[in-house]
Amino acid sequence: MQKGTPEYDDARNAVVEILRDQARHGAKPLRYGDLSRRLAELGHDVPAYGGPLPYLLEDASLEESPDGSHPMLSALVVLQDTGWPSGGFFKLARRAPFNRSGEDETLWITELNSLAKHYAET
Q: Nearest CA to 31 among 103, 94, 82?
């Protein structure tokens, strides 16, 4: 699956919808493996690790908030072993357009709370 192809765009759209739904239900974190399984159920072959999923998550966050003013959907996706987002989430959060600051834990919890609030209002 290559970025910029219809297949990639369809998978990104599916990621956005899955994560929006997750956010609407209290912004409970979702493991990479569970996201991969949900995508497979929708016909998208996206492995939990070693594939395009990190790019899809970045693009989902950027699509939802191109100017960085809204919460990051990718905050919902966590590693099974730690229950925390990957390092890629924190790198994305700290760069433009998001420019989030603070300790990792505070940043992540703030983002989850913002997602829950934002999607409760929509």
A: 82
